[in-house]
Each structure stands twice: as structure tokens, then as C-alpha cells.
Amino acid sequence: MIEFNWDWAFAWEVLPLLLDACLVTLQATLFGSLLAIATGLILALLRRSRFKTLSYSAYWWMEFVRSTPLLVQIYFLYYVAPEWGLSLSPMMTGVIALGLHYGAYLSEVFRSGIDGVDRGQWEASIALNLSPYRTYRDVILPQALRSMIPASGNYIIAMFKETPQLSAITLLEMLQLAKIMGSENFRYLEPFTLVGLIYLVLSLVASAGVRQAERRFPKEGFTLS
Amino acid sequence: MPLNEILDVLLGGAMVTIKIVIMALPLAALMAFAAGLMRLSEQPLLRGLAVIYMEFFRGTSALIQLYWIYFVLPLFGISIDAITAGVVALGLNIGAYGSEVVRGGLLSIDKGQTEAAIALNFTPRQRLWRILLPQALVGMMPPFGNLAIELVKATSLVSLITIADLTYRAKSLADMTLQVEQIFALVLVFYFLMAQVLTLGIRALEKRLGKGMQRGGLT
């Protein structure tokens, strides 16, 4: 049995490298969440569509994406996209997989946010002869945003915590690096513990930020543009 | 490779996945109720422990927890096989999320119920078991269902510590046969079906637990 001891020298040696790799993790999260927000919004609008085919397809897409594992979706994209003539780098694959996966979650948030806006607001927009685009942009979304932001923030934090799965397609993010260093030095304790702590600190800070945002936002919504 | 052989291998993997779910689910439920009740306790020590457990397992990532348990625990002299590591990591992870459901469910019960139980001289234990939990369980069911699906999805992570579950077999079959499209599409459908079955089960359970709840015009 190997004696359990924490090696500070080794920990200090790996920490800066892990923090560098943290940028890759954050990059994947950032681009993934931008894609997720776009996908989520499109899905939410499709689900509100008058055409049954559109709204049902959006519903089943969402249901399917949400009930299958992200890891398998990542593999699917990474191995099947080349068959379809699309060679994606691990980073691109990761961003698309995260974006589509969390887009399905965010669509529910957006949909309930939009549904939460008082009916009178829609009626007033019709009475004022606003186009559907202006109704959404100037009337509905600014009011819906208040309830959408905290929930979306939580999903983005959840996305951040799923980025280690991208190590399975060899993206060199924190976990992949920790694993490499662990196997090179036959010491997994320090790298894995440090990666865990970095995730813990970042997600605690981020959830405190989401709570702050929730408290700060005006009750009546705010103007876009 | 013909499709029926692929299906055979994948079905074997699905059984492993289901086995892990069946083992991790009770652990997750136990942790959820223990931590959820502890957070509502009057003892600051119990509350603190529950908060540390919850923040720790929700704040770090499931895959890192799995690796940590699998690769690092042996250094403490606790050597465990991959399946146990998977079950423990997933159970503790999902349990941490579940503890919030338990707490929220209990807090959502009308205060009058607690007061009435006190007025009727119920012991705290009776109050919890006979008054609060039966009512709270109905409301907890839908979020528990979602967590159960999260658990099924999270089992795919154990493929990364060499357990031959559905995902692992799909990956190695795909590497071997290069029929990637069919294999991964099939696997996604498998997971989807498992999640649908769980959803139906939870819905039935919710109906059963909710029997008689709406009577008398109160709610």
C-alpha cells in the first residue's frame, strides 16, 4: 500500500499548469453557453409556434436531448460528423455538444419565462398594432428576462461542471491534464484534488453571482437595446 | 458486423447500466433524505455537515468525483472495484441534488400542519412520518423523477473507469466496426427509452401517493 501523504511540492508544480488548462474549460463553457442561449431561444419560439409539426418536433427534440447522456452525444458528434463530411476539432465538438445539450434545458426556462408574462401584455401589443418581432423584443422578452436569468445562470454553471466529459474526446482541459500528470508521476491525489477544488471555487463564486444578479434586477423588467 | 449482433452486445451493456442505476438509486435516496432532514434540524452541527456535503458534491463535477473515488481512495488503503466506485460516486452526487428536493418539499407543507400536529401532542417523529412526509412526498415526485433520469444519464460516466456499460460497449464496438452512425444512434435510443420508462413509473407512483390528497376541497 502506498502511504497516503499530500505532496506540497508536487501540488505547487501542477497548479499553474492546471490553471492554464482552466482557460480551455472556461472557453468551452463560454462558447457553449452562447450557442445554448441561441438554441434555447429558437426552440422556445418553435414550441410556441401555431404549426403543430413545428412545436411537436421541437418538443421531442428537447425531450430526446435532455434524456440522453451528454457523453454519448459528444461521442456521436465526434465520430459521426466526419462520416457526414464534417471534421470537427475536439473543441468545436465540445462546444456544439454542450450548446445543443444545454439549449434543450434552456428552452424550457425561456418558454416558462415567456409564458409567465401577463396575457394582457400580448393583447395590448396587438391593440397597439406591434409586429410580432417588436412584441417580443420590446414588450415580452424584457419582462420575461427577470425570471429567465437566474435559472439560465444555474444551467450555465451546470454546463461548466460537465466540461470534464470533454476529456473523453481528448480535449486538453483540466481533467485531461490532471489525468496525464497523474499517470506520468503515479500520483493522482494532488492533480484530481486540485481540479476538484478549482471547480468547487469557481462554481461557488458563480452561484453567488447568480444570486446577486437575481437580487439586483428590477421587478418590472428592463429595456433591451 | 450484422445489426443483431450489435444489438446483443448493446443489450448486455444496457443490463450493466440498469444494474448500476438500481444500486445507486437507493443510496441517492438515502443521502437525499438524510441530508435534507439534517438541513432542517435544529442542531447547527448537523445543518453544517449537510451543507458541506451538499455544496461539495454539487460544486465539484461528477466525473471528477468518480475519478477521485476510483484513483485516490486506494491511496487511503480503501481499494474498491470500479462498480462500487461508480455506484458510490453517482449515489452521493445525485443524493446531494436530491437533498434540496427533500428540503424544499418539506418546507412547502403548510405551517398549520406542523402546528396542528403539535397541538394534537404528536411526537416530532410522528409529526415527520405521519403528517409531513406523506404530504411532501407527492410534491417531491416530479423533481425526483428528473433526478432519476439524471442518474441514468450520469451512469454513462462509469464507462470512463472501464466498466462495460452501454456507453463503454458502444465506444468499443464503434472503434472496432466503424459503424459509428448506427451504433451511437441505437445507444441514444436505448437511453431515451430507459428515461421514458422511468418517467412513466414516477408518474404512476405520484398518482398512487397522491390518492385522496385533493379530497375535501383543500389544497
TrEMBL record, chain A:
Entry-linked InterPro entries: AA_ABC_transptr_permease_3TM (IPR010065), ArtM/GltK/GlnP/TcyL/YhdX-like (IPR043429), Ectoine_EhuD (IPR014341), MetI-like (IPR000515), MetI-like_sf (IPR035906)
SUPFAM superfamilies: MetI-like
Membrane topology: Multi-pass membrane protein
Chaperone in keyword set: no
Principal place of residence: membrane
CDD domains given in the database record: TM_PBP2
Compartmental location: Cell inner membrane; Cell membrane
Transmembrane stretches, start-end: 24-46, 58-81, 191-210
Domain ABC transmembrane type-1: 22-210
The entry's keywords: Amino-acid transport, Cell membrane, Membrane, Transmembrane, Transmembrane helix, Transport
Protein family membership: Belongs to the binding-protein-dependent transport system permease family. HisMQ subfamily.
Protein name according to UniProt: Ectoine/hydroxyectoine ABC transporter permease subunit EhuD
From TrEMBL, chain B:
UniProt xrefs under InterPro entries: AA_ABC_transptr_permease_3TM, ArtM/GltK/GlnP/TcyL/YhdX-like, Ectoine_EhuC, MetI-like, MetI-like_sf
Organism: Marinobacterium rhizophilum
Family, per entry: Belongs to the binding-protein-dependent transport system permease family. HisMQ subfamily.
Record's signal peptide: none
Subcellular location: Cell inner membrane; Cell membrane
Protein name: Ectoine/hydroxyectoine ABC transporter permease subunit EhuC
Ranges in coiled-coil conformation: none
Superkingdom of origin organism: Bacteria
Keywords, ordered alphabetically: Amino-acid transport, Cell membrane, Membrane, Transmembrane, Transmembrane helix, Transport
Membrane topology (UniProt): Multi-pass membrane protein
Spans through the membrane: 20-38, 76-97, 183-205
Domain ABC transmembrane type-1: 14-199
Principal location: membrane
Pfam families: BPD_transp_1
